[in-house]
Amino acid sequence: xxxxxxxxxxxxxxxxxxxxxxxxxxxxxxxxxxxxxxxxxxxxxxxxxxxxxxxxxxxxxxxxxxxxxxxxxxxxxxxxxxxxxxxxxxxxxxxxxxxxxxxxxxxxxxxxxxxxxxxxxxxxxxxxxxxxxxxxxxxxxxxxxxxxxxxxxxxxxxxxxxxxxxxxxxxxxxxxxxxxxxxxxxxxxxxxxxxxxxxxxxxxxxxxxxxxxxxxxxxxxxxxxxxxxxxxxxxxxxxxxxxxxxxxxxxxxxxxxxxxxxxxxxxxxxxxxxxxxxxxxxxxxxxxxxxxxxxxxxxxxxxxxxxxxxxxxxxxxxxxxxxxxxxxxxxxxxxxxxxxxxxxxxxxxxxxxxxxxxxxxxxxxxxxxxxxxxxxxxxxxxxxxxxxxxxxxxxxxxxxxxxxxxxxxxxxxxxxxxxxxxxxxxxxxxxxxxxxxxxxxxxxxxxxxxxxxxxxxxxxxxxxxxxxxxxxxxxxxxxxxxxxxxxxxxxxxxxxxxxxxxxxxxxxxxxxxxxxxxxxxxxxxxxxxxxxxxxxxxxxxxxxxxxxx
Length: 549
Prior knowledge:
Layout: H1 9-17, H2 26-36, E1 41-44, E2 49-51, H3 52-68, E3 76-79, H4 85-97, E4 100-103, H5 110-120, E5 124-128, E6 130-131, E7 134-135, H6 136-142, E8 152-156, E9 167-169, H7 170-175, E10 197-203, E11 211-216, H8 217-221, H9 227-231, E12 238-241, H10 248-261, E13 264-267, H11 273-283, E14 287-290, H12 292-300, E15 314-318, H13 324-333, E16 338-345, E17 349-353, H14 360-363, E18 368-369, E19 374-378, E20 391-396, E21 403-404, H15 408-413, E22 421-429, E23 435-440, E24 444-447, E25 450-453, H16 454-461, E26 467-477, E27 481-490, H17 499-508, E28 519-522, H18 536-548
């Protein structure tokens, strides 16, 4: 399968000449590190660990197996895996043979998976037998008729004889000596063009559907190049990741970063602050990235003796603003740890981040642009606004994606003629270049760094005939910054909606749990314009005033 991208030769030449695109793929680095430090610990998850030599061997065997299954360059392999080593192996195998890796967040359910895998026309789907008490093989069976492109289902941690027809144990798949059927040396001939699509990763939509963001190998490598100088890390740095690998943050800084620099990565598949403290002490973790609630949880679960945390020198917070009080608490409790705020999107990776040594008033911003990335704030006519004035955020540079899958017009509509991408966010930009996100032109809710696509949830709720009008809004939360509240006007004669009834309805519709409202308010009517458009800002004002009383 081939995807139409927004990439042209002019951008390729400009980014390559400037040195931002190295024309490398991730397996180039895997091969180098496996050759120079084969016995070094590469990844340790909650279930097992691998050295770099073992990781390369497993990735190559998986690649040979995918070829045997009929996966060709450009075909899509969807994998809905937790932060397990199998995720890394499957992705590396895709890179090795030029297939497109499509990671899916483990908490997605029928509605999301059906849409995403259907749009991707994936040939292979990989998932656990069970994770957090959810049966993934049963879900994909229910979607079988909806997803005719799926030819193979590989199930991790499953007994072969307990699987449905057409499903196969991933362990049995990996144990098959594919190298006896295919020449491993032939893998080198399949090394992909670094400008080819490498990753198809979905982001929450604001128009009722998620968007399939396409990245090339070069746009995925570019955000990793400035890190050593900017963050002061090297091959001896121990990385930690608890954010899901299926988010771009987890993918770039938990999967790719360690391999590019030959580092050790310690992984959590379920975030737990107490466990994290123990892992830091045991493995000497130096660097972690995660949403702001992770920092809050860490500060709430510090041991009396923090000497075991002295190795932790970088805590990068992305996805939600850092409350200033948390910066002060962190500085007092862990003076050797720098807290750095950052901002980016699935479409553009990490665009801005703080610098170690920034004063407190800068730490609570979203930082400055990475080398090569340009950021500006503009008015409705795309004219730059003055420093510290709020405007729409536009970005340009080597980290930008190469288009939305099968949505070329949507892609073009969000780019200016001179290459600026309209992010949909509002912010102020200081004269020194520090960005402070202030709001969103897109109607989404950010719950602890996780985007909740409002229009998508509303569209599902509107399918219920008991609901006459629906408005999902953000309400403030001290830990997660925002939670979703569903305001509902019941249909005449319908029962009053409750939190339980709304969540039961969404569960029945197969909507992922993280999208469910956590508060439901029944109303007689909504504030609206003369044309009948719901004035959500009035609804938000009501709840903000309620919280202040």
